[in-house]
Here is the input.
Amino acid sequence: MRLSAEPGTDDAELRRGEVDLESSAGAPTLPGIRHRLVGSDRLVVVVRPGHPLTDGPLTIERYAAAQHLAVSRRGSLRDPIDDALTARGLERRIAAAGPTAAFTLQLALDTDLVVTLPDAVTRATRDQLGLVTLPLPLPLPEVPLYLLWHQRYDDDRAHGWLRDLASETVQAVFARQLTFHASP
Here is the structure.
């Protein structure tokens, strides 16, 4: 199973049978690739302890003015957050892009850089590193999580079991994170 931070432009590994099941934040666009929505996650702002953004309320203006990190395996320095800020007449500065959430969290730990990531899927790492989580001061839709597979596996009982197990596991993680987050 491959867990990716962003949708790929080509699902060749699924088509060639090199990957049986993949997760993605985007539904596939290529023919022959099936998908199932298994959950969604909200975005949160992550900073080091003592970061200037932890002093006082986090406004959209303070958020936009900070130096940011992006998560992109392809080095993209723009995402839907930037579109939402632009619609409000604001712009953020992305100082660097890292290939994974874990990489950007490590960078945020020792700098004043800000990273915005899905909550449930990054909570354990954030907690282990002792990072501070703030609410995103910008209304954005939740990030979907899809499971993807090639159509050749549609009637494969073992693959169906794997898809069901992966779906149940992801949903349990999200439910546990939501319960943990709601606790005092």
Summary: The chain has two domains: 2-40+143-182, 43-135.
